[in-house]
Write a structure and sequence with these properties.
8 strands; 6-stranded mixed sheet; two-stranded antiparallel sheet; D-tyrosyl-trna(Tyr) Deacylase, Chain: A; alpha/beta
Length: 159
Amino acid sequence: MRVLIQRVIEASVVSDGELTGKIGPGLLLLVGFEDNDNEKHLDYSVKKILNLRIFDDQHGVMNNSLMETGGELLVVSQFTLHASVKKGNRPSYVKASKPEKAIPMYESFLTKLEESCGKKIESGVFGADMKVSLVNDGPVTIWIDTMETIDNKQRSWKI
C-alpha cells in the first residue's frame, strides 16, 4: 500500500464533471494498493496518517496531528503510485492491484479512517478519470509505503 499525503489548505476532486469531494484545511491522500496488502497495512496506515505530527502548533513547529487540529480528509485512489519505470519509457503497473482486490481495500480504508477519526471522509470515485485540485500547505508531502515500513522489504531501484 502506498499513500502520498499532502497537507492542504483546501482540496477537491471532480469526476465526470461532478464534484465528489471537497475539504478545507487537512490532508489529501492519494492511495494505491498492491496484491500483498492486507488489513495490517490498512490499520498501520490509518493510525500513522491520523497521528502524524505535521501541522503547526502555536509556535509554528510541526507538532500537531490531524486529530489534534480537527482537519479534514480527502482520499483519492491512484493506481499509478505503483508505476515502475525501470525499463523503457512506458510505466508498468503490474504491481498495482486489479479492481476486484483494490476496491474492497479502498472501501475498507475509507471505513477505517472514518471510524477512527469520527467524521465523514471525502473521496474520489474509484477507477474514474478525476480532476484533483489542491492548495498545498507548506508544502508538506509525506510518502508511506507499507511494504517498506511494515514488511521491512527494500524496493529495488537499480538503474
